[in-house]
Amino acid sequence: MQSDQYNYIPILMQAILAIGFVVGTIIISGKLGPKRTSEVKDKNFECGIESVGNARVPFSVKYFLVAILFVLFDVEVIFLYPWAVNFKELGIEGMLKMIVFMSLLLVGFFYIIKKKALEWE
By 3-state DSSP, what share of the chain in percent is helix, strand and coil, each rounded to 5? Predict the structure, then answer.
């Protein structure tokens, strides 16, 4: 074995350990876990509220639109942190690039406000 291949042994050991732990946990829980079932135990339960009705009720598209917009603007705000940390090193060029970035962000924000994407009915 070459010396470069020896560097991969810890990674291989960690992968084997992780896979072994998962497989071992699944096998042990299947053998040692309780096997009593009842109507009450098999009932759907979420957040302390009993489930009522069909789970296949369609959601409003507005819900998904707001979720996507939240993720979009959240990710864009994440780009502000490295810029703020390196503000002095970036100089005026970094400032101009951030002004362009923020103006595009504001254009998108005003667009979704104009389209009334954030208003609930």
Answer: 65, 5, 30
Can you list the positions of beta strands (E) in 37-84?
A: 45-46, 49-50
CA distances from 22 to 16, 18, 64 (A): 10, 6, 34
Which of 17-21, 35-39, 53-57, 86-90 is predicted most confidently?
17-21
For residue range 57-76, what is the model confidence (pLDDT) as tens digits? 787 778 888 888 888 888 88
Identify the H or E element spanning 90.
helix 87-114
Residue 72: how many other CB atoms lie within 10 Å? 13
Half-sphere exposure of 82 (CA within 13 A, CB side): 4
46 strand-pairing partners: 49
Amino acid letter, residue 7: N
Mean pLDDT of the chain: 84
Distance CA 63, CA 19 (A): 38
DSSP strand pairing (49-50 vs 45-46): antiparallel
Which residue carries 């923020």 as its tokens?
Answer: 102
